[in-house]
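User: Hello! I'm new to structural biology and keep hearing that structure can be predicted from sequence alone. Could you demonstrate with CBS domain-containing protein? Please show me the input and the output so I can see what each looks like.

Assistant: Of course. The first part below is the input, the amino acid sequence of CBS domain-containing protein. The second part is the output, the predicted structure written as tokens.
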Amino acid sequence: MSTKKWQNAVITPNDTIKHALEVIDQEALRIALVVENEKLLGVVTDGDIRRGILAGFGLDAEAKNIMNENPLTASSNLNTKELKQLMQDKDVLSIPIVNDEGSLVGLKTLSDTFTVEKRENPIFIMAGGFGTRLRPLTDNCPKPMLKVGGKPILEILINTFKNYGFYKFYISTHYLPAVIENYFGDGSDFDIEVTYVHEQEPLGTGGALSLLPKDTLPKEPLVMINGDILTSVDFGKVLDFHMKQQSDATMCVRDYEIKVPFGVIEGEGHEITSIVEKPTYRYFVNAGIYIISHNIIKSLSNNDYLDMPTLFEQKQLSGFKTLKFPIHEYWLDVGRHDDFKKAQEDIKLLGGGND
């Protein structure tokens, strides 16, 4: 059942068992949702009807007499992957979706979790770096094309986006561009659309944005990411936050801890004012993932070097709304040999490789 038609499964507590049975049969869901004042009171299934009949209730009796008053529900905050796992763990084929106020807002079936609604938002992947810290691995291979678990990092990243319905990709190239272009082509072999943006000279993350084809670029906010990142971030949630907050530019940030293994002495001049023993300082750091609205991209000058932190600073001073979005999911910047080695182990847990 399409989530857009979940209302067809709604009945009132005073509707008859016969009506509930008709809803279950017509919608082929094996469930009717008992709702009053937008609140989910319970659900009725084939099994509930059978048990009700055995208990002596006729088909003209009210559905509230046989409904399950404590059904399994899911929060509207769960993503598709989490819903699928919940339904598989509980061995159910469908699950009502409720918001934070307890109101019924939808119904998801297990089959829904295998199909992903397409998103028109473009994805811009920065894949032009030299990868000098990973030499000699990158002597003849761009860093994003190094294989982790049998697949290039760039392919793993693209597949992650595909899982959330994204299919329009722009890839920025500079170092050994043919290696990337020969592998992905126009994207048709990967069920995506790929447009390449070549930097004649490195322009920085923000400067590369100016090379995008502004006339044909979709008007939806763009997701930008460094091409050497492995992550399980729910990009749909980040994008939804950006849209809901009406942000012009959103930066994903990570919580970063620095533990000082010594006592930190604070003071004025020669006088000690406090001693903090082995403190831990916490900061938000740039995760290399951004959501950029179309009006920002249009405002950029072509071929001017610009890093992303500077772009955020400039646009904030110009009155644009710039926000941060903390991420807690798995994230790894494959920038050094130790990171590359760690990625080979982590990919087994992420399920993104092809051993």
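User: So the tokens describe the shape?

Assistant: Right, they're a compact way of writing down the 3D structure. Reading them back into a model, for example: The mean pLDDT is 86.
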